[in-house]
Amino acid sequence: MANIHSFTPQPTADGSFTFFSEAFGEYFHSTQGAKTEALLKFVEPCHLKQKAQQQVVRLLDVCYGLGYNTAAALETIWTINPRCRVELVALELDLSVPRSAIAHHFLSGWNQPIPELLECLVTTSQVQTDQLQAQLYLGDARKSIQQLRQSNFQADAIFLDPFSPRRCPQLWTVEFFQQLAKCCDKTGRLATYSCAAAVRSGLITAGFKIGPTPPVGGRQPGTVASFDASTLPPLSERSRQHLQTRAAIPYRDPQLADQADIIRQRRQIEQQASTLEPTSHWQKRWSAKEGWGRWGEGVRG
Q1: Is 260 in a helix, a strand, or coil?
Q2: Which residues of the chain, if any, have pLDDT below 50?
Q3: In the chain, alpha helices (H)
Q4: Beta bridge partner(s), residue 59
Q5: What's the predicted TM-score (pTM) here?
Q6: Does residue 236 sit in helix, strand or coil?
């Protein structure tokens, strides 16, 4: 695990801060606006303003990181309904990341008692109050999600926020998505910043229906998933065609235990044997139509 002091605050376009991960070569949140991303690509697509009318809202935050997505969710819910009880499960590999975010006061911009509650969560791995019941699972999310399944936890909202598929394919596989689907309520929603075709096709294979979410700072859109297509915005023709290319071959991890290199190699072999349209043909066709370059990789920046 990284040392708590190894992370340096990086300003983003909306005035909030993020960290850069040397291990993954990516930022934890978009430099176009870290706090804005939490709202636009996670909280709003999961319809938490509407779900706040419920007596209880259950959240699953995959790759808790700096705590921004959870903080934005709690503030949104309690602004609408201060009496709403939130049940939160957060999955995180490296405890030094949220600890460092707290040390740099990243959560101070949210309303109290949110900063205090999340500091308690990071310090003790659990919170029990009238408003919040929270548990932080540390370790490989592939193992944690299987433990969570045994508790019959059913999330109203799932935030899927690992590093990009190319950097961290372990948490973008069909098998991991299947675990998430089993932890998602029948009316629940899953949101992620990625629009990669492999991610979207993997979610579909796992039983979800998908739609786009708005871009942050003019960059690429994200993805929202649920079990009811009628509640989702439609994909563009460009995106639908992207799902018919070799880029849409999903990552696979049959035992939920393989290393990143093995998962990437498995997908590459499947792509080489595929009869689907080469992704380069799709790119050229749409670049000529719209003047766009490379798109859909789901990379942070």
Answers
A1: helix
A2: 1-2, 292-295, 297, 301
A3: 34-38, 48-51, 68-80, 96-103, 114-124, 141-150, 174-182, 197-205, 237-242, 260-273, 279-290
A4: 88, 157
A5: 0.94
A6: coil
Written as one string, the DSSP assignment of 103-172 is: HTTGGGGSPTTHHHHHHHHHHHSEEESSSEEEEEEES-HHHHHHHHHHTT--EEEEEE--S-TTT-GGGS
In the three-class reduction of DSSP (H, G, I as helix; E, B as strand; rest coil), residue 188 is classed as strand
pLDDT per residue as tens digits for the range 187-220? 999 999 999 999 999 999 999 999 999 887 767 8
Residues 6+ apart with CB under 8 A from 64: 70, 90, 91, 92, 98, 136
**Maximum Cα–Cα distance across the chain:** 57
Look up residue 211 and give its DSSP letter: E
pLDDT-above-70 percentage for the chain: 93
Residues 116, 120: Cα–Cα separation, whole Å: 6
Cis preceding-peptide flag for 98 (omega within 30 of 0):
no
First-to-last CA distance in the chain? 23
Task: Record the tokens describing residue 238, joined without a space.
Answer: 């460009």
Helix (H, G, I), strand (E, B) or coil at 56: strand
Query: Phi/psi of residue 135, each to 5°?
Result: -135, 130
Quote the tokens at residue 48.
């938490």
Residue 218, pLDDT score: 63
Tokens of 43: 């909280």
